[in-house]
Every structure is written in C-alpha cells, then in structure tokens.
Amino acid sequence: MSAAPDTHHEAGPGLYPRRWAALGVIAISQLMVVLDATIVNIALPSARADLGISEADQQWVVTAYTLAFGGLLLLGGRIADYWGRKRTFMVGAIGFAAASAIGGLATAGPMLFGARALQGVFGALLAPASLALLTVLFTNAKERAKAFAVYGAIAGGGSAVGLLLGGVLTEYASWRWCLLVNIPIALLALALAIKFVPESRADGDTTYDIPGAVIVTLGLASLVYGFTEAAKVGKGWDSGTTWAFIGAGIVLLILFVVVETRTKNPLLPLRIVLDRNRGGAYLTSVLVGAGLFGAFLFLALYLQNVLGYTPLKTGFASLPVTLGVLIAATVASNALPRTGPKPLMILGPVLAAAGMVMLRFIDLDTSFWAHLFPAQILLGLGLGFTFVPLSSLALVGVPEHDAGAASAALNATQQVGGSLGTALLNTIATSAITAYLVANPPQNPAEGRRAGLLAQADGYSHAFTWSAALILLAAVVAAVFIKVGKQDLPTPEGAHMG
Question: Where is the Major facilitator superfamily (MFS) profile domain (predicted)?
C-alpha cells in the first residue's frame, strides 16, 4: 500500500488553521480508548453470569484489553510515524468499532476476551496517532499547554467517566452496550477526522521492528498470567507454574532490551528511555497506572459487593474522582509554564496516595460523604496534577522522527502498569480474603454472609494499601529523576530539538 502524501508542510508547526477542531477529534477518540479500560468494571458481574465466565477468568475482560493495548502501542507509534498519522488514526477508529461490535455480540467468554484483545490492538494504533498529531499541530508553548491540559484531563478522568457510563448502560440497557457504545463514537471521530485532521508523517527509515513487538507483548502477557496464577486456589506464590510464567516474562523483557540495542530501527529507541527525565516520567507513569487501575476496579467491587450499591449508584459514586481530575488539570495546565513539571509530579502522587490511604480504612458501613467522597477527591486531584506534566514532559526534546514512539511509550507505560497492577493487586486482595476467612471462620450459617463481607472489605483494604505504596513510590521517582525546569518545556524553537 502506498504511503499517504506528506502534507506536514501544510500543517506547519502551530499554523494549521483547524488545529483546535482537530484537537476536538483527537479528544473524542482518546476518551473512547481510555474509558474502555474501565467501562466494563461495573458490567463484569452481569457479563460473567450471562456468559458463564469463571471468577478466576473474569479479570481477563480487563487485562486482555490493557495487555494488547500496552504491548502493541510502541509498534502503533512507529506505524503512525511512517505510514501516516491521519491514516493510522482512521484505521484504528474503524477497527476499534468492529472489535467493539464483536465483543458486544459475544456468546461465550473466550469470544469476549478475544474481542477485548482486538480492541486493544486497534487502540494501539489510535492512541499514539492521536498524541503524535497533537505534537505536530501544537508547538506554541501556551497553545501546547492548553492542548495537553485537555489531553491530560481525558487521560486522568476518562477512567472515572467509564465507570459512570458503565453503570448507566448496565442498569438501563445491558452490559453489552458498554462495548457497543463505542461504535457511534468511533464513527463520529472518523467522520470528523476526514474533514479536520491533516496528514503528516516522519521522514527516514520506515522499517518495522516486528520481533520486538512480539517479544515485549509475550513478556508482559507472561508476567500478568503469572500474577493471575498466584491468585488461583491451589496455585499461589508457592506454585512452580506461577514462577515459571513470571520468570519467562522477565527473561523475555530482558531479551527485548537486547533486541532493541541490535536492531537498526528499533521499536523503542533506547535513547528515548535513557534520557533521565523521560525515563523518570515513564517509570512514574507505570507506578501511577498500576495503582490507578487497581483502585478503580476494587472501588467498583467494594461499592457493589460490600455496600450493595446498584450499578448506576456505583457509577455516580465514582464521579468525585472525575471532579478532582478536572480541577487539578485546569490548575496544573496554568501552573506548568511557571513551576515546571517536577513540583506537580511530586504533589500529584502524594495527594493520590493520601486518597488511597483513606480508602484503606473501609468497613461494612463506610459513609460516602464523610469518607469515600473526600478520598476520591484527593485521588482525582492527585491524578490531574500527575498526568498533565507527564504528557508534556515525556515529549520534551524528542525529534519529530521519534514523536510517535515517544508518545506511544507514555501510553504504554500507563497501560502496562495497569495490567501488571490489576493482576498483582487482585492476587493480594484474593489472598487477603482467603486468609481472613481462615483466621475468622464463621461459627454458624447466619454469620457466614457477614464474615464474607468482612473478608472482602479486608481484601480490598489490602489492595488500596498497596496501591498507595505504588503511587507514593512514583513521587519518589519523580523527585529523584526529574530535572527539567520550566525553561526546558517545549517552545516553537525547542519542540523538536534532538
């Protein structure tokens, strides 16, 4: 297939007249991709009952998506750079809609898992193409700060919006609409992209590192499967199978690094990661992603399974996170040019971790307004203050040739963190629930239900504690690694320096 004509000169840095309309199109597609990671959380019990999915396998509805998405984002970034960012964006939107249709019509668990993985594959084309387009269109420092504020708010708040939308659709329609809703959104983005988004692509070597993409995806999948095995009854951390998969995953990821150093045109140019500031930003993103995805999953389970909220009430009860993200993203976008990214990237994780610590003290009758509401506000504020500088920092000093790979790496770190975090925290929660029931066996059937609820609350409490630790570690990483000052943020002259 021939490459799209290079019309980058028409879009000129900061000069494309329809760039704000293009930002609207990018925002629509990014919201769809981000909320799809959490929209099925609330629908999980209904989908599991409908399709006969086992409790051990239900987490694959979440991780099949985040794994394929995170594992292939780097390849998606390269495809966007070389094949054409607009073209890649449009193919991603069409494929995402088709995969959503398959998932919404699924008749068995494996069909749903496969559709979710396929959504991840096309999301891996859509997301890096979106951010690379944003990078090319906005090079003026003030305009770029505003554009990244929109992008950052969606990245942080989209997950919470997914929980709300999942609650509404599950209660009033069907869990299937949590997937089918993507079809009109994708088609709208596609129609608007044709009119408002300009084509652009990078010059130079256009070969693809397929071995790298396969190795890193298999390595991540093996790690997640190992964590999942540790959560199963009869397996656990003492199981040889558990450590075999974890060990294989680590070996494959090491092999990926070796392959990247020897490949002419690597999937992930190590110069992108080895930069102190970008490396710190990516590591921060992994840790925040690990805590974030786990928090949303276990908060939804706690609200429904322990407090007895309906899907709709659970969705609305998740709104404070979105409110916090929107407030913080607005404040952060205005503060970023004055303070630089480092203070915000330390403040954000500290606030989010404080919210997690509050959630650690849940019980069977925890007050929403006195406890859950302020905890979620803190969590949202923390995420907003973290994501806005992250989006900007990850692209500081990146030459245009690497824009797709650098933006894909940022997205990938969050998704990979989410995959590993969900699997690991699920294992921690499951183990804690089992341990609680062993230590506090119910004396009679009447105590059985209460004991089960107390065990779940204890398990989720352990998960929130570890989430807080992961996110707090992100603040330490930011404090140690991030050295970029406000003067180093992208400007028309410095946006594409090598």
Answer: 22-486
Residues 249 and 319 both lie in one domain = no
189 lies in a domain?
yes
What pLDDT sits at residue 329? 85
CATH number of the domain at 325, please: 1.20.1250.20
| Tokens linked to 159 | 């997950």
Instruction: Using alpha carbons, list the distances in angstroms from residue 336 to 138, 168, 475.
Output: 16, 35, 17
Identify how many contiguous H helices and E strands the chain contains and give both numbers: 19, 0
Per-residue burial over 31-62, b if 16 or more Cβ lie within 10 Å, else e, is: bbbbbbbbbbbbbbbbbbebbebeeeebbbbb
Which residue carries 């080895």 as its tokens?
274
DSSP-derived letter for residue 494 is T
Secondary structure E strands in 102-156: none
Question: Residues 437, 438, 440, CA angle at the centre, nearest 5°?
Answer: 60
Range picked from 96-105, 131-140, 291-300, 437-446 for highest mean pLDDT: 96-105
CA atoms within 13 A on the CB side of 111: 14
Q: What does each C-alpha distance from 211 to 251, 269, 475 come to in angstroms?
A: 15, 14, 34
> The tokens of 275 are what?
């930069």
Could you identify the residue written with the tokens 């790690």? Answer: 223
CA dist 119 and 69 (Å) reads: 8
For 155, the domain range is: 9-209+263-488
Claim to verify: residue 423 and residue 467 sit in the same structural domain: yes
Q: How many angstroms separate the CA atoms of 282 and 477, rounded? A: 10
Do residues 274 and 396 share a domain?
yes
Q: CA-CA distance, 63 to 228, in Å (whole number)?
A: 10
Number of domains in the chain: 2
Split at pLDDT 50, 70, 90, the class of 4 is very low
Average pLDDT score over residue span 196-206: 79
Average pLDDT over residues 138-147: 83
CA of residue 259 relative to chain centroid, distance: 26
Mean pLDDT of 7-19: 57
Residue 474: its H or E element: helix 445-481
Task: Name the least confident of 159-163, 280-284, 382-386.
Answer: 159-163
Cα separation, 430 vs 62, in Å, equals: 17
pLDDT bin (cut points 50, 70, 90) of residue 15 is: low
Residue pair 119/96 in contact (Cβ under 8 Å)? The answer is yes
> Is 37 in a helix, a strand, or coil?
coil
Is 493 part of a structural domain of the chain? Answer: no
Angle at 85 between CA 398 and CA 33, to 5 degrees: 95
